[in-house]
Design a protein that fits this description.
Its cofactor is pyridoxal 5'-phosphate. By secondary structure, the protein is of the alpha/beta class. It is 43% helix and 14% strand. Helix 5 runs parallel beside helix 6 and helix 5 packs across helix 10.
Length: 391
């Protein structure tokens, strides 16, 4: 029998499967485990959005939508971005509705990268970008941000571009960040824009957590480098709609026109029903995220307090719903071994920091997209684990 896997695209076989999903599947088999693993809101989609979907079904909205999304949804998305963040995109030709932000990331990287291109990746970072650029035939340039407050600095960005020359085609920025919860100020983004300006380099800005900024207002590279920026967002985190699979990808017309080709060939279009639900979310639920954000902030503050007392030092979590915590020195510093031991002995599941690239070693990511009751139970168990293991 011929082993056809040997003849598949080598970039696909080189891409690594998600360690996060692998560990989450392992942890899910442990009875009564407290899971701080997956970044999925534990809130329900707001009722007015569900009602809009029901009405869409009743009126038989079951045919193909335009490939880039219904004009109603693109207009709602454009208005939402303008009202909330002063980001301005023409809904007729600069906004594409995708199958979640995940598809937007894949479509963008597939469209802009040629084999041999390089992409600057500040780490720790969600590993999806790395897999996608690998499949596209490009290679990552990792910049470890652990010693810079988990933020990419203009100096390190400039150095990476100088060292790699014309091979650099893109830089990926995710803010607020998964896994650290760290975000940028507008001044910091302006400084990065100054390094990138007028260079043939795309800035892929994943702003899916923009509605979950706590003490500061959301800043964006769009304000300082719109002409080179591909903006990615969606309703998954802001409106607790992960399963509805609606993402938003925006770019200047000439770029968006090319991005739309990959989107069209990959999925044709997203479903009319979920588009109608997302239209309602963005048009009439612009502040739906606020009560969720307030609850996340309470959980964040509770967890930071408890973790600090146990010796876990966290990166300053300004947004999203993640804590990136350094494992105390007296515990196992091999973060992968640590999370499996913690899951087996304490029935608490977290993600190892090294899954997010250089700079993540010796850390764990804790998602607080789970109830306060689960947070309290998990911290009580972690306390017992730390006390018993440290003896």
């Amino acid at each position: 029998m011929v082993d056809l896997t040997k003849y598949m695209k080598k970039e696909v076989t080189a891409a690594k499967a998600s360690k996060i999903l692998e560990f989450n599947a392992f942890a899910s088999k442990i009875p009564d485990i407290v899971k701080f693993t997956v970044g999925e809101p534990d809130f329900d989609t707001p009722e007015h959005i569900k009602e809009a979907a029901i009405q869409s079904i009743k009126t038989t909205r079951s045919h193909y939508a335009p490939s880039n999304g219904s004009l109603e949804l693109r207009t709602a998305a454009s208005n939402f971005l303008a009202n909330k963040y002063d980001q301005h995109y023409d809904p007729t030709n600069e906004v594409i509705i995708t199958n979640g932000a995940t598809e937007a990331i894949y479509s963008a990287l597939t469209a802009i990268l040629n084999p041999g291109d390089k992409v600057i990746i500040p780490t720790p970072i969600f590993p999806l970008y790395i897999a996608d650029l690998t499949i596209a035939g490009a290679s990552p340039i990792f910049i470890n941000t652990a010693t810079d407050g988990f933020k990419l600095t203009p100096a390190k960005l400039a150095a990476a571009i100088a060292e790699n020359g014309s091979a650099v085609r893109a830089v990926v920025l995710n803010y607020p960040s998964n896994p650290t919860g760290v975000t940028y100020t507008q001044k910091e983004l302006d400084a990065l824009a100054d390094v990138l300006r007028d260079k043939p380099i795309f800035a892929l800005c994943d702003e899916i957590y923009s509605e979950l900024c706590y003490e500061t207002t959301h800043a964006s590279l769009v304000h300082s480098l719109r002409e080179q920026t591909i903006l990615i967002t969606g309703v998954s985190k802001s409106h607790a709609m992960t399963g509805w699979r609606i993402g938003i990808m925006c770019a200047p017309f000439a770029i968006a026109n090319e991005l739309a080709k990959i989107h069209q060939f990959a999925i044709t279009t997203t479903s009319c029903v979920t588009q109608d639900a997302a239209t309602e979310a963005l048009a009439n639920g612009q502040d739906d995220a606020l009560p969720m954000r307030d609850e996340y902030k309470k959980r964040r503050d509770f967890l930071v307090s408890k973790l600090s007392k146990l010796g876990f030092q966290c990166a300053p979590p300004a947004g999203a719903f993640y804590l990136f915590a350094k494992i105390p020195a007296q515990l196992n510093q091999n973060d992968e071994e640590f999370i499996y031991d913690l899951a087996k002995k304490a029935r608490v599941a977290v993600i190892n920091g090294s899954a997010f690239g250089p700079g993540g070693e010796g850390y764990v990511r804790i998602s607080y997209a789970t109830s306060m009751a689960e947070c309290e139970k998990g911290m009580a168990r972690l306390k017992e684990y730390v006390e018993s293991t440290s003896k």
